[in-house]
Design a protein that fits this description.
mainly alpha, two-stranded antiparallel sheet, globular, disordered N terminus
């Protein structure tokens, strides 16, 4: 199965993995699985509208935690499984219901502006938090399917490759949007409301 870009592996055999390397990779795979499941659970919960008041903080935490694992994946050397091509784990899941549910839950605050590539220039585009979250979910769930099939190295390869090519960028962009949203929600209040809250906070 081909992923975004061209995820064909190098023809050369990968370097020998030592016992210490293997232990580190297993630990990283366990951490990645845990955060991927938490992320998928959170976006599903937000899409279901079960806790609308906490939607933005929950998404902020889930995306931040997933990006922390992504940073670890991006910082290590390339993970190269023994097989040259990615094994087929079946058809991709249908993510359109999740996209629609998130767009509905985030109605009115979903769309945001972003810089296409900050290293190339100030060109702006429009994105949606719901679209970004679904793009991330679609990418990371593929690695989870490999992990659940027992192919840990394959899962790590996919998570690392797709972090660098797809979901790292989308998650980083939506994290900025979520943080900005939270800042507006917390700070854009009337002066008398802010003063009253500050007074209450200072009371013993």
């Amino acid at each position: 199965m081909a992923g975004p870009g061209d995820p064909q592996r190098p023809v050369d055999e990968p370097d020998v993995v030592t016992a210490d390397d293997a232990a580190d990779l297993v630990e990283l795979a366990d951490a990645a699985q845990s955060e991927v499941r938490r992320f998928l659970s959170t976006v599903t919960e937000v899409g279901a509208g079960s806790n609308p008041e906490a939607a933005i903080p929950l998404l902020l935490l889930a995306v931040s935690d997933l990006l922390a694992v992504g940073a670890r994946l991006g910082a290590i050397v390339d993970v190269v499984p023994a097989e040259r091509f990615e094994p087929d784990v079946g058809p991709d899941p249908d993510v359109e219901p999740l996209r629609a549910a998130l767009a509905n839950a985030l109605e009115g605050i979903d769309e945001y502006a972003e810089v296409v590539d900050p290293l190339m220039g100030p060109e702006l585009t429009t994105s949606t938090i719901s679209g970004d979250l679904v793009a991330v979910a679609q990418a990371v769930v593929q690695g989870l399917r490999h992990a659940e099939a027992g192919a840990v190295l394959e899962a790590l390869w996919w998570w690392q490759f797709s972090y660098l090519s797809v979901w790292g960028e989308r998650a980083s962009s939506t994290l900025r949007a979520l943080q900005s949203l939270l800042g507006h929600l917390r700070l854009d209040v009337e002066d008398d409301v802010a003063a009253e809250a500050e007074y209450d906070a200072l009371q013993p």
